[in-house]
Amino acid sequence: MMDDEATYLCASCGEEILIPIDVSQGQNQEYVEDCPVCCCPMVIVVEIHPDGSITCRADRE
After folding, report:
1. Whole-structure pTM value
2. Close Cβ partners of 16 (under 8 Å, ≥ 6 residues apart)
3. 16, 30, 32, 58 - which has most CB atoms within 10 Å?
């Protein structure tokens, strides 16, 4: 079963952020979202692997 949440570390403040993942949007996703802690914009990159695991990272915009 595929998870529908993942975490990333904010590249600005270092906080671990839990985000929902919309698996219907494809295996490779990229979007901009503000960190809910420090408000810096992050480019969120999500990869959904064939085994159902999810990799998520955040880069500064």
Report:
1. 0.83
2. 7, 8, 9, 10
3. 58
Distance, CA of 50 to CA of 2 (rounded, Å): 10
Q: How many CB atoms lie within 10 A of CB 56?
A: 19
Confidence category of residue 32, pLDDT binned at 50, 70, 90: very high
pLDDT above 60 for 28: yes
Helix (H, G, I), strand (E, B) or coil at 1: coil
Give Cβ neighbours of residue 24 (< 8 Å, ≥ 6 apart): none
Three-state secondary structure string covering 11-29: CCCCCEEEEECCHHHCCEE
Gap between the Cα atoms of 60 and 42, Å rounded: 5
